[in-house]
Amino acid sequence: MAIERTFSIIKPDATARNLTGAVNAVIEKAGLRIVAQKRIRMTKEQAETFYAVHKARPFFGELVEFMTSGPVVVQVLEGENAVAKYRDAMGATDPSKAADGTIRKLYAKSIGENSAHGSDAPETAAIEIAQFFSGNEIVG
Ligand code: DAT
Ligand code: MG
């Protein structure tokens, strides 16, 4: 399996509780390298673009509101099989279904406020990374 990159967001519920380092510890323990990272406040437009695939879902409005409610930390993670590896490290979308030791099991407050985002495929990872990072901000 080749070295791969995935896109991560430490969400507002986690930054509000000062959990950036705690989430990063799980990421690094999973064998993923943080090759780009910045703390930003997402605009409504950025959040709507980022989650456009969920536009028709009933939770879309509250999702955009939540993602713009406070600072987030956007990241690029690198490693073997990084997309799947980070999905495993995050755990299920619904924290009550997430496995022990995962970011969402440890830290998520609810299915909506679930502490972390990770890309679902290499193709979406490339699109998501390009939305938030220019090439020279990623240092592998
Ligand atoms: P994931 O973030 O695990 O990839 P997803 O892509 O299905 O999950 O949904 C994106 C985000 O939308 C998810 O992290 C939290 C929110 N969300 C999903 N399902 C929800 C629901 N039933 N109620 C409220 N928010 C939800
Ligand atoms: Mg998703």
Automatic annotation (TrEMBL):
GO molecular function: ATP binding; metal ion binding; nucleoside diphosphate kinase activity
Highest classification ranks of the organism: Bacteria, Pseudomonadati, Pseudomonadota, Alphaproteobacteria, Hyphomicrobiales
All copies of domain Nucleoside diphosphate kinase-like, residue ranges: 3-140
EC number: 2.7.4.6
EC supergroup of this enzyme: transferase
Species: Bradyrhizobium amphicarpaeae
Protein name per the record: Nucleoside diphosphate kinase
Active site: 117
Domain of life: Bacteria
Pfam families linked to this entry: NDK
Similarity remark: Belongs to the NDK family.
Major location (coarse): cytoplasm
Subunit structure: Homotetramer.
UniProt GO cellular component terms: cytoplasm
CDD domains: NDPk_I
Compartment annotation: Cytoplasm
Catalytically driven reaction(s): a 2'-deoxyribonucleoside 5'-diphosphate + ATP = a 2'-deoxyribonucleoside 5'-triphosphate + ADP; a ribonucleoside 5'-diphosphate + ATP = a ribonucleoside 5'-triphosphate + ADP
Cofactor: Mg(2+)
Alphabetized InterPro entries for the sequence: NDK-like_dom (IPR034907), NDK-like_dom_sf (IPR036850), Nucleoside_diP_kinase (IPR001564), Nucleoside_diP_kinase_AS (IPR023005)
Binding site for ATP: 11, 59, 87, 93, 104, 114
UniProt keyword terms in alphabetical order: ATP-binding, Cytoplasm, Kinase, Magnesium, Metal-binding, Nucleotide metabolism, Nucleotide-binding, Phosphoprotein, Transferase
SMART domains named among the record's database cross-references: NDK
UniProt feature coiled coil, ranges: none
Purpose of the protein: Major role in the synthesis of nucleoside triphosphates other than ATP. The ATP gamma phosphate is transferred to the NDP beta phosphate via a ping-pong mechanism, using a phosphorylated active-site intermediate.
